[in-house]
Specification:
7% helix; 134 residues; globular; 1 helix
Length: 134
């Protein structure tokens, strides 16, 4: 009987108490951002680029004034075909939204998508999204 009672206690769901919202980022806090430097990349597997997407929206933050960094959008592998590029501007302590839209070269079908950082200066990506053709 004790064994049955112990098994019932083990399988009962217990309420979890904790934080229900994500913590808000403080000014200058880069802990919720993807830090990018030369050669680093973000990967998205099996993106269907034929479903009406016409571009990408990336929010970046850069503290370097010479502005020689850029983002390359590549397909299939980190050194694959380039379907677009964006220059990363100086943003200071804030973020700036960049959009890559229009006719993206080689952007047909299902591919792995890579966002590759190029340039000597590091920067941060705070968000990424698709721009749809409605």
């Amino acid at each position: 009987m004790r064994l049955l009672f112990m098994l019932v206690l083990v399988f009962l769901p217990l309420p979890v108490i904790g934080q229900t919202t994500a913590p808000s980022a403080k000014k200058g806090d880069r802990s919720t951002e993807f830090r990018m430097k030369e050669g680093s990349y973000l990967a998205f597997a099996q993106v269907n680029l034929s479903m009406g997407e016409i571009g990408f929206r990336v929010e970046v933050a850069s503290e370097h004034k010479n502005g020689k960094s850029r983002i390359e959008f590549r397909i299939d592998k980190p050194k694959g075909k380039i379907i677009g590029t964006l220059a990363v501007p100086y943003t200071g302590d804030s973020t700036y939204a960049l959009k890559l839209t229009g006719n993206l070269r080689h952007a047909e079908g299902v591919h792995d998508l890579y966002i590759v950082a190029k340039g000597a200066n590091p920067f941060s990506i705070t968000s990424f999204g698709f721009i749809f053709n409605y």
